Amino acid sequence: MHEELENFERNHVWDLVKPPPNCRPIGAKWVFKNKQGEDGMVVRNKARLVAQGFCQKDGIDYEETFAPVARLEAIRILLAFAASKGFKLQQMDIKSAFPNGFIEEEISDRVYKLRKALYGLKQAPRAWYARLKSFLLKSGFVMGSVDKTLFLLSRGGDTLIVQIYVDDIIFGGSSHALVSSFAEQMSREFEMSFMGELQFFLGLQIKQGLEGTFVHQAKYTRDILKKFNMGDSKPMTTPMSTNTALDADEDGEAVDQKEF
Q: Domain coordinates of the chain in residue numbers?
């Protein structure tokens, strides 16, 4: 909680002001969450001061809210591309992404007037995306023509590729120096948590090696089984085992096996 509030001070998230006339205060609450790794172990404890955005009214408290988010298919394509080029993908996390984004509307409560977006606000994701996109474009990146969460940087024959998913960032390139330079540049601009080589993302467990990149969802499968109390169920082969003995249906009609 202290780290979150210190982040607000560094980013100048709010100003202490007198309540404006006819203002409609928006409440806030603390939300606590544990971020888990691929093995289910807690890798980071998070405390977020979240605005109660459900109190906001469209056209009064905000205008636009849409912000692009990387599709899972795009993540898979990035993994395949990186494997074909021999890139080692890295992962970083913005400690407090939304308080880095500027908001255009004035949203005031009885004590603080927000200067930047806060988690929970309707326009917070859009504000953060605009802030990060602006920084990357100024740094020489080119945004993808189709995927607006993909950014490319070419420098001296080397390539750096960056994929963003809200406050999680995947990046890799053909030059170790270029990758390190980008990581340092990001840490100077934002409060970052570097998570090293990409191993777990959006439920995908990823193993990168000389023999290739392998993706599986063992943890996701275990979580689903646990959720429905099937953790001790006997596993079965799927598709069905070819050695399974079946009884003939004497009264059944013959079918063309090629259709199946």
A: 2-220
